[in-house]
Hints:
- By secondary structure, the chain is α+β, with helices and mostly antiparallel strands.
- The chain has 2 domains: 12-48; 71-223, no CATH class.
- It is 33% helix and 27% strand.
- It has helices at 10-40, 160-167, 176-192, 195-213; strands spanning 71-88, 98-114, 123-125, 131-136, 140-141, 145-146, 152-158, 218-223.
- Strands 1, 2, 5, 6 and 7 form a 5-stranded antiparallel sheet that branches. It has a 3-stranded mixed sheet with strand order 3-4-8, covered by helices on one side.
Amino acid sequence: MDTKETHVAPERRSRTARTVGRITVTVVVTAALLVLVLRFLPVPGLGDLFGSRTHDRTGPAVLKSLRDLSRFEGAAGDYQVVVDLEHDAPFLPDGIRGTRTLYVGAGSVSAYVEMGGLGQQAVTVDADRTSASLRLPHAKLGAAALDPARSYAVSKQRGLLDRLGDFFSDNPSGEQAVQKVAVQRIGEAAKASGLEQRAERNTAAVLEGMLHSLGFTSVTVTFA
């Protein structure tokens, strides 16, 4: 019995491969164009076909601790800072290794007077209960707190190596560094704005009003 073998010419195989390649590229390009069309020119009934959805599977918050506060917050300030933070490598161009982030940080700082440690010597009342003197500690600044609703990154520039690092990182494009700088600058601004002195004036005014309502005609509040 004779056996016939079929041989495909190399030219024919090459043409077939090119044809398959063209078809594949055409399908990919067509799909990409279809996604763009549906994204920017939504068709009724198909507008959400390639859209994104958000699934909130967050569990309830768990109470970790409770603290009793004995402070009076006499003043608070809102601050905003524009952070321009850049990291680069000495011997590599910025396009290869380096990051630069422009970040707008908005937050608040409060000033308070701690009254939990006051002893009997802090309050002096005369025999007629018409005059009272209070000696309080100086006001202190609380920790600066960023407001995530009003803080945002304006721009981010990253080199090639940094982009690759973000690809394999658990926290790509983290903003901890710029947030830390923003908190520091907001705290410095609070110190320079006289927030502590304002808190002391407001605290003294509140205590004087309370004691006057109790019948005291002379009230003196000092901070030391």
